[in-house]
């Protein structure tokens, strides 16, 4: 079998790219080792922080800010293409401190980027969220913070891909790449070889493992995050509430996610009693009314963390047609629209909407045995 492009990995990054390429007229085959969208992209909380492209300077901030611009229209387009709702919601966010003062650099970064921010004392915070603990005395509101329901977004993207003609092959791990000099000629799965002009690896935390077969050592490691999902009859809060790396994410049907941990535990995608108990303590400390809420479900996911802290977006050094888009760590959902766009532009030989130098896979990131 042959196609223009093979994409290996069907999370939010692979699906976003596949849709863009197919809509640009390329024939695309996306290969997923299990069912589509069951890994980090499913497990994530779906927080979409705000951004301002005219004020953002660092490469990652620009990727985030471009995505912020794209989310509302993307959600509308996906609905038009599929009739499915991805749960995009401009719910706003509160950043508060629990026992210690708010990080000044964090607050300053938003201001310097020109992101709208409202300073609030305890009473002001509770005017927005009446169930917030009376122990909380300072924070700020980010009206531009939004959210998406990951499983819904993934289903919507997969359906949009189908409608755009992407061949989606599930339960079919990519086993190896066949190479001729600096060109990959095909990938091999248990069902045979697939030839293509271009290949892109979007295998999240498994990217390093997969690239080893092409002779590359690219450092992307799994960082485990655990989540507790509460179910209440009516929503207890409406804003995403963040304290450092911990957060509460309300859904509009009364569900509420509490996250998350950052653990180096290899590929052990399991929850632990200790972390789940800690997340529940955190939730009740922040919003005491959650003390009587029912835990509906818990889970863990593996975030792909690159050695540079930013995703790798580009060609592998020395290769003509092997691309990678992986390593989005805590931000793969939020930055997926811009990632899909710039990778599609790069692979189609078009000018990219952002300068990708800050994301390139240079020789310091890889070792090649080929
Ligand atoms: C608990 C938690 C909370 C998070 N919260 C947020 C958040 O609020 N906002 C945000 O923006 N981000 C969040 N993230 C991060 C975000 O989920 C990730 O950055 C993002 O999902 C990465 O997407 P991906 O497509 O690269 O990886 P994945 O979703 O992991 O997809 C990779 C895919 O590749 C497949 N694959 C692997 N090996 C092979 C192979 N050999 N052949 C074929 N397929 C293969 C896998 O099965 C998988 O489906 C969170 C993550 C976690 C775990």
Explain this structure to me?
The chain is α+β, with helices and mostly antiparallel strands. The chain folds into 2 domains: 216 residues, FAD/NAD(P)-binding domain (3-Layer(bba) Sandwich); 135 residues, 2-Layer Sandwich (D-Amino Acid Oxidase, Chain A, domain 2). It is built from 9 helices and 20 strands. Strands 1, 2, 8, 9, 10, 11, 18 and 19 form an 8-stranded mixed sheet that branches. Strands 5-6-4-14-15-16-13-17 form an 8-stranded mixed sheet. It has a two-stranded antiparallel ribbon with strand order 3-7. Strand 1, helix 1 and strand 2 form a beta-alpha-beta unit. Helix 1 runs parallel beside helix 6, helix 1 packs across helix 9 and helix 3 packs across helix 6. The longest helix is centred in the N-terminal third of the chain and has 24 residues. It is globular and about 65 Å long. The two termini are 26 Å apart. The mean pLDDT is 95. Flavin-adenine dinucleotide binds next to helix 1, helix 2, strand 13 and strand 17.
């Amino acid at each position: 079998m042959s196609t223009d492009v093979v994409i290996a990995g069907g999370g939010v990054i692979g699906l976003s790219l596949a849709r863009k390429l197919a809509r640009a007229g390329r024939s695309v085959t996306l290969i997923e080792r299990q069912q589509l969208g069951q890994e980090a992209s499913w497990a994530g909380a779906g927080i979409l922080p705000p951004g301002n492209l005219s004020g953002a300077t660092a490469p990652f901030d620009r990727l985030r800010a471009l995505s912020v611009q794209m989310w509302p229209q993307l959600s509308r387009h996906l609905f038009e293409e599929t009739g499915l709702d991805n749960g995009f919601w401009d719910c706003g966010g509160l950043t508060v401190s629990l026992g210690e003062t708010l990080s000044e650099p964090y607050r300053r970064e938003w201001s310097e980027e020109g992101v709208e921010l409202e300073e609030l004392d305890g009473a002001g915070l509770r005017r927005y969220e009446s169930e917030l603990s009376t122990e909380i005395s300072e924070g700020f509101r980010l009206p531009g913070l939004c959210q998406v329901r990951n499983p819904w977004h993934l289903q919507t993207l997969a359906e949009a891909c189908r409608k755009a003609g992407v061949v989606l092959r599930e339960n079919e791990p990519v086993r190896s790449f066949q190479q001729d000099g600096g060109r990959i000629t095909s990938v091999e799965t248990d069902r045979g070889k697939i030839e293509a002009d271009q290949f892109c690896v979007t295998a999240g935390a498994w990217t390093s493992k997969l690239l080893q077969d092409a002779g590359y050592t690219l450092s992307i490691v799994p960082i485990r995050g655990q989540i507790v999902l509460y179910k209440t009859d009516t929503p207890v809060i409406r804003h995403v509430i963040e304290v450092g790396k911990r957060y509460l994410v309300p859904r509009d049907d009364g569900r509420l996610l509490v996250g998350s941990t950052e653990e180096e535990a290899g590929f052990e995608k399991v929850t632990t009693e200790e972390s789940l108990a800690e997340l529940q303590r955190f939730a009740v400390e922040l919003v005491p009314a959650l003390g009587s809420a029912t835990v509906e479900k818990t889970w863990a996911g593996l975030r792909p963390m690159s050695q540079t802290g930013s995703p790798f977006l580009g060609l592998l050094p020395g290769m003509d047609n092997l691309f990678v888009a992986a390593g989005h760590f805590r931000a793969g959902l939020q930055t997926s629209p811009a990632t899909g766009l710039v990778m599609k532009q790069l692979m189609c030989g078009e000018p990219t909407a952002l300068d990708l130098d800050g994301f390139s896979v240079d020789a310091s990131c890889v070792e090649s045995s080929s």
